[in-house]
Every structure is written in structure tokens, then in C-alpha cells.
Amino acid sequence: MGRGIIVLVLVFLCVSLGGPAAPEAGSAAAAEAHTVLSADSIPIAYTVQGKGEPALVFVHCWSCDRSYWQSQVSVFDKKHTVVTLDLAGHGESGLGRKDWTIESFAGDVVAVVTALDLQRVILIGHSMGGPVALEAARRMPDRVIGIIGVDTFRDLEEKYDDARKQQMLGMLKANFPAVTDRFVRSMFPAGADSALVARIASDMASEPPEVAIGAMKNLLGYDPLPALAEIKAPIRSINGDLFPTDVEAGRRYAKSFAVAFMPGRGHFPHLEDPQTFNKILAQTIDEIAKAK
Length: 292
Prior knowledge:
Layout (H helix, E strand, L loop, with lengths): L2 H8 L23 E4 L5 E7 L5 E5 L10 H7 L5 E4 L16 H15 L4 E6 L2 H11 L4 E7 L11 H13 L1 H10 L8 H12 L3 H12 L4 H6 L4 E6 L6 H7 L4 E5 L6 H4 L1 H18 L1
Parallel strand pairs: 3-4, 3-5, 5-6, 6-7, 7-8
Antiparallel strand pairs: 1-2, 2-4
Helix pairs in contact: 3-4, 5-6, 5-8, 6-7
């Protein structure tokens, strides 16, 4: 797959780790799962650990699930209520949705936050989880006090024409395993952990294509600007530096927008270097909490 196509889907995009090693005690995967129905009656699985405000709600990326935040849950549940969920069509949540839109995924987040009656919430979204968090915050202005993206919000003004979108979707439909394998491997810097890269590439290539392709279609067509026009909560992002971020474009639509970069990291900074990522995340959470 050519680099131009890779860049096309990089924005807000993530890949699945699927089938990780056995979770550590206290991880998101080890916690008891609960279920709430989404607005379209899809069962949404979620876990809750720890106690304290603001509550942290972690939103996974495309084709991932809630277990991939386990290196964050086991740290932040000491001071915060930590919630992880599986968006519809992912992990232990249900299938059957007619259209896998960013707005419907945001509804999954809203359903969980509402069921738990969380009052002060910071949404933390990786890649596709970033725009999902925007839409969820748009619907919960009285609950969400901040949004933190993870390798997302790279160019809020970027648009893709139909020809480019159809080209990418056509490639995925024609040979989903091969295209995703090559794409995933392009998202890591030279010298990245080869075992991590191989596991992600292998697992993503085995994902059910119907949900993934449907979600990607809507992801590539998503416009964040209407949500940004309504959101008053501060917006931050923690990004690797493998791909460029247009910080000024972000600030044109969200004056509070700021980015912390992790040098030498790719699209999965929270997995590539959890210790450094967690330190930056803790600082960002404290900054938002003190401002609200």
C-alpha cells in the first residue's frame, strides 16, 4: 500500500491488538464487566475500577477493545474512577448496528456515563476514539470537563474527496488481511518493538471486515468542526512524532487545544512507552482538573 493511502487513513485511525497476553491483576480485562444498552439497543460492555473525581473514561480506537488500556487503568485507578468500555461491534459489546458511525459510537459512551451517573468526566480517546470523544462531549456539556486525545486530532481541517475514500475502501474490501497488515506496519517508527508490531499486524488482519470497513467509511467522512464549535471543555492530545500534527489548525477551532509530543513514538504511544505516556497523561489530567 502506497504512503499516500497510508496517510489517508492515519487521521483518527487505530488498529487492533486483539488477543493480548493474559492481563495483569487489576487490569481492565480482569475487572468484572457490566452491560448497558445503547440507544439502538446494542449491549455495551464496560468495566469500572477505582474511585475519585474526575472520572476517566477511556475510549478505544478502531477495531480495539477496552483491554488495551490496561497499562493506564492499573495506574490511574488509584486516584480516579476509571471506566473502560467496548464500543458496539468491538470486544464483548454487541453487533447488529445498521451503520457504524462516529455518532453512534459516541452514543455508546453517553450510555455508559449516564448509567454510572458520572458528574465530572475526562474523556480519553485513542485515534478514532478522539472524534468519538468529541461527539460524546458534545452531548454531555454538563458532565465532560475535558477531552484528551491519543495520537489523534492531527489536522482538524483535512478533508478527503470521494475518489480517495473509495480507493481506500475498495482496497480493504478486495484484500482486507493483506492491506491491513501492510498498513499497520507503517504506523511504527524504525526500531519499534518487533513483537508488538507483529502482534498488532497479525491480529488486525484477522478482524471481521464488515464492522471495520463500515466504521472506517464513516471515520474518513467525519467532520469534527461542528462538534468543536459547541464544545467548551479544554482539548488536549498526546501524540507520537512519526506523523505531523497541525497544532495551529487545531487552535483555530479550539483555543484551548494543545499537544504534548512523545519523540520517537508512532501511532500507539500508550503501548510503545506506557511509563512516559502515563506521566504525561497524569500531568494533563491534573491541569484540566485544576482548571475546572
